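Aim 2, interim progress. The first record below pairs a target sequence with its structure tokens.
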Amino acid sequence: MKTSLQSAVALLVLMVGLALAWPMTTSAADVAGTYKCEGENEMGGKYTGTVTIVKQDQTYRVTWKLGPRETYFGLGVLQGDVLAVSYYESRLGVVAYKVEDDSKLVGKKAMVKGDGAVTTEILTRQPDNTVLPGKTGSQ
């Protein structure tokens, strides 16, 4: 487990370094919000869910809710139009989202215990008043 954690930290450092090295374009829109998530896992299977991104000082706290018992947490930094996030819980990995516009983030992700595969995840911003699966209107 210690090696997995060290690998996750090393991957986050690499992703942050890449994000910092990327040429800066116009300032990315504020990425904080609630998103519909659509992606593929390393086995080629499809998944959907909800992603919440909350800005905390200069970092972003990311929560993926992919099912009733499948929640992941992450910590990210935004540099230009790239949000680099390390995620953890039962799986460790990294994802680098390119901010396409103020409503869409397209990510490439990899897992620490994976076989080296890079998969895609797309986040589409939801309006503030949208009730997503698993949430009630009062939340």
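The second target in this work package is listed in the same format:
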Amino acid sequence: MKLTRTGVWSDIKRANGGFGGATLTWHSWPARGCGYGIVFFHVAYVPAFTKPAFITLPPIFDHIVPILGNCVPLFFVISAFSLTYVHDKSVGQDSWIGPYLIKRIFRIGPLFWAMMVAYWFLWWWPPRHFIELLIINATFAFNFFPSTHESVVAAGWSVRVEMPFYLAFPFILARVRRTRDAVIFLVVAGTISFASLFWLSGNPDYASKAFTSCIAMFAIGLLAYRCFMSWSDDAKPWSCVAFLVVASAMYLVSWHFPIFNGQFNPLFWSCAFGFLCVWQAATPSRLLANSVMQWLGERSFSIYLLHPLTINQLSIHDVYIWIWQSLEPTIGAWAYLPCVALTLTIVLSLSALTYALIEKPGQKVGAAIIAAFRTRSVSSAAA
């Protein structure tokens, strides 16, 4: 395997396998891209839920921003790709699954649970079925119930899609050892996803966010990794061309020829994202390996969970309307960008706090549990 940037893969392993202090390189930019892309997307559309639609997109952005709704599928693909790299050699070793699951829980759980409390204090929980909602959200089970799939935490639906995959990942990884295995897994997962989209089409929102509808995206990420490992170094750079071709085709299809009202677009876009993973793994960008990108990448989960709350509050208090009415007469639809800039400023500031006060301490607790687990295992083995 050819490394074009020193330490790229060791950084990925530390970032996924450790708790903080890792230098995030190519694999972390999709996480940042997901967070920022979703902010651009939601600033354009979420205010319309609380106020009459008034934001219009400037040139170029009117074609780019609608596509940014696919940032979450991008994260699903990259998650499977990077997790496979980190744990591929762990298969067959003793006692790797327990620490792996603990890391996943304490990477995601503390902030998500804190956001549940925040939304409760804001009186945004539904007034009925409090105990039921508390249980299914705290245990990440809400995605399996169509009426609660959005979670009490805005944008939390994707967390519940991730958690079943994380739980099944050791089982999947143990059986998908070759490229052929990954192709078979993708065919099975793709069949499940397409069937789920058709079966649940009566509830389009749930259909697009159900775990069964998204499982093929993870399968694409796993296949992308197997291809990356099996392709020659000369072949890997062609993944850039493949990504550009598939992404261009998807842009034309989604913009001009939407199939089934676009409900399959995230799956098709995920194919392009698979090539993107291979391309960036083979030739990662120099722009990503610096302290600023590391800082942003470490806080990407906070950015993702905090941005809906921030956008909602700015919209409710007419901040976006004030910016728009003040600037739109002068700069037209470009007033959209100051709205995004203000949102990102607030979200990044809050993310710095939540990372320091919630995420990092939670990761340390997880690390302590893993250390105790390993000490106990060693003691048991010695006995």
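The CA atoms of residues 21 and 374 lie 21 Å apart. This observation will shape the mutagenesis plan for the next reporting period.
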